[in-house]
Amino acid sequence: MSKQDGKLVMAHMYVAIVCLIIGGLAGLLQTLVRSGTLELPAGIGYYQILTVHGIILALVLTTFFILGFQTAAVIRTCGELSPLQRKLIWLGFWVMLIGTAMAATMVLLNKATVLYTFYAPLKAHVIFYIGMALVVVGSWLSAAGQVMRYAQWKKEHKGQKSPLLSYMVAINNVMWFVCSIGVASTVLFQMIPWSLGLVERIDVSLSRTLFWYFGHALVYFWLLPAYMAWYAVVPKIIGAKAFSDNLARMSFMLFLFFSIPVGIHHQLTEPGIDVTWKYVQVVLTFMVVIPSLMTAFSLFATFEAYGRNIGTKGLFGWVKTLPWSDARFVLPFIGMVAFIPGGAGGLVNASAQMNQVVHNTIWITGHFHLTVATAVILTFFGTMYWLIPHATGRVMTKVINKLAIAQGIMWAIGMSIMSGAMHYVGLFGAPRRSTFSTYGGSEIAAEWIPYQVIQAIGGTILFISIIMVVIVFIQLAFFAPKGYEAFPVSEAMDEAAPVYKFVENWKFLIVVTIALILVAYTVPIGQMFMDPPPGAAGMGEGKLW
Ligand code: HAS
To answer: Domain 3-530 adopts which CATH fold?
Structure first.
């Protein structure tokens, strides 16, 4: 990678690592406060810390890392950026950074304690909303730069199959453009006028629906870069070929179709949305599970085929052939394993009847700590461990590699303890998003306390793991020996097979995506305008339900 592109990628990584430190510290404080072991100093609220934790980790760290990684992936597979494309990505970076600074300032001043799901009825200072809007606009600019590079490649190689990684980046970005219109609309047309006092009331139901139209696709915006690494990078690291290029493209196409028209599965307990539309979106949610199952199949097939090719015997003999002493493999692998229970928990959440048991309990927090905070983030760490030396012209050493593996294992231990306790006690009704309380001496609430202590133990181990990530990062960025670390990209076993043309027919992809969104959302959103749910407009500001 050229020096100037290395700088561009690293700028994103620096922001991501700073976010990890701040957000991780906020997470540690939360588990300590929730378990009753720590009291925050006067003037700092539990929900303020929770807002910092959610926004900095779930929204800012992920977006910067993803856009940096995707930029590197497009450069690696399509070639150098044009000056215009590079400028667009830099512009996007700065706009996001300014937006983040504005939003963060308001949160620190306690003027935007609205959690990372910042829909109504919680209200923030207008500067917070403008800041978040800038983060979205900045991400559009950066994504546009990447998509332009992919389009340029397509133009220069008419009739040829595009590089898999760049195709995946294009899918993720198109999904991002379409879904972030939801959050942009609620911020621009509802939250900003409300926060400025231009309107007295806004429709809470509509605000939540527009947020979740964006919010569920957001989780796939996090997941797909991890899948990019699983499909296209990890096979190269183990010395294998990916199972199938066509299958990978097909799975990404299905994510584009089904990631967005499913947001109402976050609102299954809400009045004001007709049960028919909840049913439709639950069915679509089960459709979005299919590409994940295809991914699981493909990964097993890649690992097993490689092992058998080099002559291992027995049902699981191939497991021994995997590179267990290479952090670039071990961390994403732990992520894959975590995604099995994480995804299974998602199926529970999406099943309407079981959702009644787990909704708004700390089970949900357990679910997303397995999915985004383990499967995705461990894959991102594993990716960082070759991407940073690749961008800075250094190489991984044996000692750093060992530390990186230890970091991944610590993460797995800490998260199993914390997320396990969250899942378990969630089933006994322990609420999410609540600080330490005995609920007036309630016997049931007393049973939750030991599990909150277990969560704090897990959280502490995770924080130690974060310190290890920072050490590895600093080593790789500034002190590791100079050299050349490749950006690993694997070939597929069916490389020579003809590609299914429709997976790259963008008119077809966009028409199907929009048609499914219209089917899933036209009537429920229409009903909100024509027949607002009782009390929707009058829930008032500042209430936390
Ligand atoms: Fe979720 C809530 C349903 C996946 C994140 N989810 C959340 C929230 C977050 C989140 C952040 O239906 C909380 C939002 C909030 O603040 O309120 N989720 C699902 C479903 C899936 C799913 C059906 N979620 C994710 C992913 C996330 C994520 C991915 C982040 C990256 N989720 C829900 C629902 C709610 C929800 C409801 C709302 C609940 C409520 O009431 O509030 C599916 O996509 C999951 C499909 C995946 C699988 C697993 C396939 C397995 C694979 C592993 C391969 C591993 C291999 C390892 C091959 C079925 C791909 C090899 C191993 C060897 C041993 C060799």
So the answer is: Cytochrome C Oxidase; Chain A (1.20.210)
